[in-house]
Amino acid sequence: MRRAAACVLLVIAMVLAAGLRESTQPSVDAAGTYEAGTVCLAGVTPDQLGQLFVTEPGGIVGADYQRATPLSNGSVLWTFQDAEVRLPNGSTTLVHNIGMIQRDHCFTALMSGTAADPQPWLFASETTKFAHWYWPLGAEMGADGRVYVFMAEMVEHGPGYLTRVEPIATVVAGVDIDDLDVEFRGAPANAGPSLYGWSIESDGTWTYLYAQCHRQFGFDSYLDVYGHDTQCSSIVTVARVPRGHLLAAPSYWTGSGWSSDDAAAVAVIDTEGRTVNPSQFVRANNNWMAITKVGDWWGDRVLVERANRPTGPFSVVAEIAAVPKCAVDCNTYFASWIPSPDPTRIIYGLSHNRWDGIATEVYRPTFASVRAPAYRVSTADRCSLGYCG
Predict the structure, then answer these.
(1) H or E segment and range at residue 376
(2) 1 CB-near residues (< 8 Å, 6+ apart)
(3) What is d(CA 78, CA 39) in angstroms, rounded to the nearest whole number?
(4) Measured between alpha carbons, how far is residue 227 from residues 102, 166, 292, 328, 352 in Å?
(5) Which tens digit of pLDDT belongs to each residue from 51-100?
């Protein structure tokens, strides 16, 4: 007993020395958001963000598909797919979606349910575990002051979890950014399985909703694994709505203009030689930046691309090796942009797992950064300076 206690004290000391501290007092608000636990990091550099799940805040052993959205109150909303959560008895359970609210250097895990029975943060009452669930897509601040989180409604048609999965619809949750109450649950104007809202970013006038089919399991064979639907997995299209009006009817980029017909949408990311493009987008210094773990689970490179416009054309500006956490049994997938406190760098996250799917410390994202692009003077800027004509 004493030896076990000494080990616990040693672990706590090591955690504190690493610049982390954890609150184990959860709370449940009136709307059902379960604030499961908080971890505070020494900072938010890429290396420090890599410590996010070390203490298992709220029992979270690991998760993937990391996405982070800056909020108008200065905090950052993170969402994750399929978190593995430790129960009080030491066993673990899978929760199809969770959130985290980042305030300065502290991160609070968001679920529903309780510590003994953790449930998805969003659309828990509509979820049937392993059969019908909701995965987070992009999120963006709305004109009404809420943050709107787009979700893929997923259905399992196969004999086991992740054997023949497809998205059947797009839904949206509107969340109060201060108390984290879920105040709206509904559908966007395009609620179909094309998943407009896969990645979301805004400029001063428009909010852009990028789409990718997210059909990963049980479709085309590659290396004897039935994975992505290659008829759609490389195609990324974009629609737009007035800035912050996330539920408005979108118009779609056709290659030469915008149309109300979603069938006219064209790819904005290069598809040649790429079977899967799970691309994510951010506007940085008036440039449009895309990041793609080409091939998703497969392949070994992350591409960073830049464009003058949200519709492209995008040109590769960096090619980065995607390094798994172990040599044989591990893989990498889904690169995404993360808000950075350093204006000269853009942080990105990369998901990791084992090929056998067993949730260990491998099942946690890593983070790195790339140089931010130089500020691009737009046409409007040039005109305001008298250089238009």
Answers:
(1) none
(2) none
(3) 14
(4) 34, 11, 18, 19, 17
(5) 999 999 999 999 999 999 999 999 999 999 999 999 999 999 999 999 99
Both tokens assigned to 378: 């737009």
Phi and psi, residue 136, nearest 5°: -70, 145
> In the numeric block, which tokens belong to residue 170?
């797009």
Residue with tokens 């609070």: 108
Strand partners, 28: 34
Strand 345-354 with 366-371, pairing: antiparallel
| pTM of the predicted structure, to 2 decimals | 0.90
3-state secondary structure of 218: coil
Give Dmax (Cα) for the chain: 80
**Residue entry with tokens 């395009």:** 190
The token pair that represents 278 in the structure block: 């799970």
Grouping H, G, I as helix, E, B as strand and the rest as coil, residue 187 is: coil
Bridge partner list, 280: 291
Alpha-carbon separation of residue 273 from 30, 276, 303 (angstroms) = 50, 9, 13
Distances (CA, A) of 345 to 264, 294, 338, 368, 373: 36, 22, 11, 10, 8
For residues 172, 178, 180, 181, the Cα torsion angle rounded to the nearest 10 degrees is -80
Number of H helices, E strands in the chain: 3, 26
Which residue in this structure is represented by tokens 């399992």? 156
Structure tokens at 100: 């985290």
pLDDT digit string, tens, across residues 299-347: 999 999 999 999 999 999 999 999 999 988 999 999 999 999 999 999 9
Q: Is 88 helix (H, G, I), strand (E, B) or coil?
A: coil
- At a CB cut-off of 8 Å and minimum separation 6, what does 305 contact? 269, 289, 290, 291, 292, 314, 315, 316, 317
In whole angstroms, how large is the CA radius of gyration of the chain? 21
